[in-house]
Structures are given as structure tokens and as C-alpha cells.
Automatic annotation (TrEMBL):
UniProt cross-references to Pfam families, sorted A to Z: Collagen (PF01391)
Transmembrane segments: none
Low complexity composition bias: residue spans: 28-41
Chain spans, region Disordered: 27-76
Signal peptide as annotated in the record: 1-18
Protein name: Collagen-like protein
Compositionally biased tracts (Polar residues): 43-55
Entry keywords, A to Z: Signal
Amino acid sequence: MNRLMILSALLAVLGLTACDQPTVVNVPAGPAGPAGAKGATGNQGDTGAQGNTGNKGEAGKPGDSTTVIVTPPAQP
């Protein structure tokens, strides 16, 4: 019985230490180097085509009440 407890404790210790992984420390990159000389300006691109204007919507109907809802201004 005594040997069984010692053996199980030894196996538990070995099992726990085998799972221990070293901590990976990521070293941050150094500062960027000096900027190089600027290149020549490229050519002007072509103007894009006019997009579709969409369908005309239906006219709205007049209101049936005189209630006006005023929202308070947003808090700064």
C-alpha cells in the first residue's frame, strides 16, 4: 500500500511537470528605418462613368394630424 501511494505520487509529479511548456516571449520589432526618396508622380487616371440614377419613388400622402415630434439634442 505504501509503495502504491509513493508510485502514484511520483507519476502525478512527472505527469504535471511533463505538461509544463516554456513561456514564449515575443520581442517587439525595432523602430522603422529612415524613409527613402519619393518617386515620380504617376499619370492621372480616367474619369469614371456616370452611375444609374435609380427609379422614381411614389409621391407621399399628406399627414392626417398636427402632431410634431421634436427630439432633444444629443448630449456632448
